[in-house]
Amino acid sequence: MIKKVIEIKKNVPADDRVELSWFDMQKPNLSAMTDKNVSFILKVKFTHLHDNDILVCEDGYAIEIARGKDDVYVFEFSDHISFAKNAYAIGNRHQPICIEDYKITVLDDIALGDIVGVLQSDDSVKVTKSNEYFRPNINEHHSH
Question: Can you list the residues of the chain whose pLDDT is less than 50?
Answer without folding.
Answer: 140-144
